[in-house]
Design goal:
Strand order of the largest sheet: 13-14-16-15-17-18-19-20
CATH topology of the largest domain: Rossmann fold
Number of domains: 2
CATH architecture of the largest domain: 3-Layer(aba) Sandwich
Number of strands: 20
Distance between the termini: 27 Å
CATH superfamily of the largest domain: Alpha/Beta hydrolase fold, catalytic domain
CATH class of the largest domain: Alpha Beta
Shape: globular
Radius of gyration: 23 Å
Structural class: alpha+beta
């Protein structure tokens, strides 16, 4: 049984609840310390037509909106309608299958759904999570399941305890064989938990392995932020990237000494989305002899070409450019020989598409042969789950 994977099971319960999910008053509770109960509220309720009903009991509120950026048509926050019983409600959809984060905004105050126990963590926030079944590659299916563990380790480079999530494939606990390792990094708004909750990484790997489309592998999902403020890992003494230091000094050695990992280049991969994609390049290019597979999702070298983190205008880099700083590694022909895959994919509507294109062009100039796929869509988990599903089967073949 996988840790932290209650989302899909909860969604299944919602199907059963859909037939009776109308808000109805409960009988009054016995007099005493608990007092009377209000209306019974089921939220979210996922219908067989993939319409999702969101509800919250807020009898004294003046306005309630749904905050859920990945749900189509909800960019500005859909307003909920108040019923006579004080329950606010909105129906969204039909919604494409997948996992979606959402919160309620009640009179200007954000709150998770108090009736939904499924949550997803981000860098500085917690979201409620709803899963709409119907996507074969990430649904919870009757296949062998691996496990996801939240692992605490001591970072010698940062001098504090840190957390990462690690996926082990089905049967790992009973086996003895060593396995390849895949380091999977999150984006700027997220944390190490995101890939296994809203990202559905464990279920995606379970289904790929069961279908023999991907090799069994260990997936290490570290925390990319070294503080809750700012973008990325931050800078330590001498301008050193704190996350890169933590990754090389602590994360990789911990994972590859505490798990049965084949610790050589041919059995090691790294990929990341958005901020994590930029971090992937910051790790992989200077340490190319360690990685045979490199993936960059909705990203590139963020800020290296004068663009802001979101693709907005920004001053040109001061001092040597990233390309100039890493010219020796970029032109190291011997290191490139063992690189089996350098893979990029970004949505055509993504604000970072120009950054991806510029990064790919720069790498080609230095003799790399990157694969670049411009997908539909924008900067959302809808794309990142698809990218993982497409990238993972190419590893360790």
């Amino acid at each position: 049984m996988q840790l932290g994977r209650s989302t899909a099971g909860f969604a299944a319960l919602m199907f059963a609840a859909a037939a009776w999910a109308q808000v109805a008053p409960q009988p009054p509770a016995p007099a005493g310390r608990g007092g009377g109960r209000g209306p019974q509220v089921v939220s979210p309720a996922v219908g067989e037509d993939r319409r999702v009903t969101f509800r919250i009991l807020a009898p004294h509120a003046e306005s309630v909106r749904l905050s859920a950026g990945d749900i189509p048509g909800n960019g500005q926050g859909a307003p909920l309608t108040k019923g006579e019983n004080g329950v606010w409600e909105v129906v969204m959809g039909p919604i494409d299958p997948g996992a979606y984060r959402y919160n309620f905004n009640v009179d200007g105050v954000s709150t998770i759904d108090p009736r939904n126990p499924s949550i997803s963590e981000s860098n500085t926030n917690v979201w409620s999570l709803v899963y709409v079944p119907g996507a074969d590659f990430m649904d919870t299916k009757e296949v062998p399941h691996g496990a996801v563990a939240a692992v605490t380790y001591w970072s010698t480079s940062l001098k504090r305890f840190r957390r990462m999530h690690i996926y082990t494939p089905p049967g790992y606990e009973l086996g003895k064989e060593k396995l390849p390792v895949f380091y999977l990094l999150h984006g700027a708004g997220d944390c190490d938990e995101a890939w296994t909750s809203v990202g559905r990484a464990g279920f995606i790997l379970d289904n790929l392995i069961a279908a023999k489309k991907a090799k069994p592998m260990i997936v290490v999902m570290p925390a990319g932020h070294t503080s809750t403020a700012g973008f990325g890992g931050g800078r330590g003494p001498g301008g050193q990237d704190e996350f890169v230091n933590d990754f090389v000094t602590d994360i990789m050695p911990y994972a590859e000494s505490h798990y049965r990992v084949i610790a050589d280049r041919a059995h090691r991969a790294i990929a990341g989305l958005s901020m994590g994609g930029s971090q992937t390049l910051n790790i992989a290019i200077p340490h190319l002899a360690k990685f045979a597979y490199v993936g960059v999702y909705s990203s590139g070298l963020i800020g290296a070409f004068g663009g802001g983190r979101g693709g907005t205008a920004a001053p040109a880099p001061q001092g040597p450019t990233w390309e100039e700083q890493h010219k020796a590694e970029l032109d190291n022909a011997a290191a490139k020989k063992g690189l089996k895959l350098l893979w990029f994919s970004t949505g055509v509507d993504d604000r970072l598409i120009t950054t991806t294109r510029a990064t790919v062009d720069m790498l080609k100039k230095h003799g790399f042969d990157p694969v670049f796929k411009e997908s539909p869509g924008a900067h959302t988990w809808i794309n990142w789950r698809n990218y993982l599903n497409e990238f993972a089967p190419q590893l360790f073949q």
